[in-house]
Amino acid sequence: MDEQPPGTRDQSGATDGPLGCYRHPGRETGIRCTRCDRPICTECMVSASVGFQCPDCVRQGSGTGHGPAANQPRTLAGGTIAADPRLVTKILLALNVALFIVVHVKAALLPDLTLFGRANLYYGGPPEGVAEGQWYRLVTSMFLHQEVWHIAFNMLGLWWLGGPLEAALGRARYLTLYLLSGLAGSALTYWLAAPNQPSLGASGAIFGLLGATAVLMRRLNYDMRPVLVLLALNLLFTFTWGGIAWQAHVGGLIAGTVIAIAMVHAPRGRRALVQYGTCALVLAAVILIVVARTAALT
């Protein structure tokens, strides 16, 4: 198949069906390079002063401005373009799977890492949990799973949602969104669930990625119906299926959505202030909830 060279435009105006990324033909997209007009997906698009450019145009120095910094490829959110846009997603997935194997080989580790507010885990022993100063449980519980179906669903969601988000946000911003979404889910669970109710799983973080995906698709003018249907089904499952910590899902969804709005809609001139400020506010809210709940329990 002939390929349209960079810097030229298709004058026919034909649009037969959904556009496919010129580097990844199987990926439908509604975004075009502002220089050569070729369709590009979230993994390929590079943020420019106006719109987005494709990697070929960036490499040819088609960007505006002068000096290395002006032509440095950037993601939609201002992050650095990475050679492997799924590296952080792969690491997170491997960490979840590794801990799943570890706690099944040594089951005694599970109670010591699971999220509890305050509970007597061992007969005759002192109370343990976040209220007793074990704040690490807010983090460790995010990477633990007890059932095969639980980790299977979460890791499928991580792989499906995480890759495009990591490519669009950049590694550091994507990892920040993931961790803060998970922490927000843990904090809301700690606040609203019974103190002795155990909770674990990456679901809070995954719901954060789901909310962020909806924000990103809206920003790129993609068809939002698939992600909205997926979100509705997951929320229905959350509130109708027994044994699910709905607080983690809701907390992660809210945090992920708020952070993603700041990531992809921040004005270019105040991008760092808006992005860092929003993440700091979410973290402050998490800390406030944990401190207030701890005071109430102790």
TrEMBL record:
Residues 1-21 are annotated as: Disordered. Belongs to the peptidase S54 family. GO terms for molecular function: peptidase activity. Residues 133-264 form the Peptidase S54 rhomboid domain. Pfam families: Rhomboid (PF01694). The chain crosses the membrane at residues 91-110, 143-162, 174-193, 199-217, 224-242, 248-266, 273-296. Keywords: Hydrolase, Membrane, Protease, Transmembrane, Transmembrane helix. InterPro entries: Peptidase_S54_rhomboid_dom, Rhomboid-like_sf, Rhomboid_protease_S54. It is a multi-pass membrane protein. This is Rhomboid family intramembrane serine protease. It comes from the Bacteria. Gene3D superfamilies: Rhomboid-like. GO terms for biological process: proteolysis. It is an enzyme of class 3 (hydrolase). Its main location: membrane. It is found in: Membrane. The keyword Oxidoreductase does not apply. Its EC number is 3.4.21.-.
